[in-house]
Amino acid sequence: MRSIRGRPWGRAIALAVGVVVLGTLFATVGSGGIARAAPAPDANAPSATWAYGGVGTIHFSGVSRAGIPYVGNLTDGFTVELAQQNVSGTSFSLNVTRTSGAAFAIEYCTPNCQTPVYRSSLQARFWESDRTVSLLTTAGAVNESGGPVAAIALESSTTVTRANETESTSSYLPVAGSVPVARSGYLSADIFSNSSVTFPRPLGILPENLTDSQGWSSEAGFRSTGETGYRYFLSRSGAVTGSVSGSGSLPLPSNGTESLLGAYSSANSIRLGGVPFPEVALAPSGPFGLVDGIVLVPTGAQLFATTTARPWAGNESGAVNAGMSFLDVRTVDRAHFGVGASRWVFGLQTLEPTYATSGSASGLTDLAGTGTPDTPAQTAVQGEPQSPTQSASVQGCLLYGSACPGAGLPTASTLRDLVGPAVAVAGVGTVVAMVAVVAVRRRLPPPVYPNAPLYPPGGPTTGRAGPHDPTPPAPSDSEDDPLGHLW
Q1: Least packed by Cβ within 10 Å: which of 46, 140, 316, 456?
Q2: In this structure, is residue 131 part of a structural domain?
């Protein structure tokens, strides 16, 4: 099966930024090109801590491309915790912990989901945890149409990333129009990365003064060290039974160039805690992604990115992509760096079941055999200021599925009401639903296999992320099944 990560959400957002900036901003500038230094932070000021994020759940139903009814849900969101320490008159450090995640469950049912005869289910969870220490300066610059202007710039960034995706599939479908066959599948994959990046000339990010219809660019060479690796396990049972596992590393350049396009319009603003914040669009380009404008992550380690081909992608039955549409930031009159929140768009894609088996590159049987995914569901998650308790609650939802708002498929008594428009359920922060067609399958306990300790799903580990990280045990057979009421 081909990869279904085919919707370039990040590239679409980058294109939107590029339209504003294209044709005017191509020069590279350094801190020496500005006539006036940016306002300096107070080196004696105590550290500031704050957090923001959002999470929510949407429920949806519809009919797939092949005419199969389905019902499902999608929970997604993120939370960011920041601590700032001013280290000099022009430099400050940011210690950032960022968690993003998505979980979905879909069931296809024929002839309908109220009285199904044949069913195919998919449940999956994706999460990424980034821990970053970044050093920034207010003595940087970005280039605008009239030349260089004072800006906040990134001097260095050290990041540890841990990510996991786990999906379970189950179906009871006739093979080639004959006797129905029960089939199941399980896929778990981990990404682990350590990176340290320095910019001899700081990479400009945000102009100190934002004005209407403003566009800017920056570019800087970097030196980096680190490693990015992965491991996965795949199993299938039913008409064909077997398992495949693999591991390896992803390229991380030791040097290169990172660039960025930015844009701001006064038409884009939001109030956070009663305070107006400009909404800035940022589009980084290079071997690193600039998440929330401050977290530098190798693109190969970004689970929700669309630009990196995963070795296991051909066996995915579902995928979630994400891209930042706006960074909400105040560059003046601030008690800290000024980032108040961000807005992210999550997109879901799934492959619908077929009535015949199909082979994959691994030689195992895939439950989803169509080459073209259904139109994905989308949600725009707007972050809001959070307390430490709220941030911890969102982390628990995204990493472990605990206390998620509105989670679980609808009960049988509400199925009739759901056959039609999607229903949005808002959580911590604001979730705007823009739902189209989607698909899902039932979660099964992980199968028993000899090298289980090497490839289990689960939450993030503590300490250094790397090929030899310990991982939590796989879920027990008693794990709650949100699709149980449909069986």
Answers
A1: 46
A2: yes
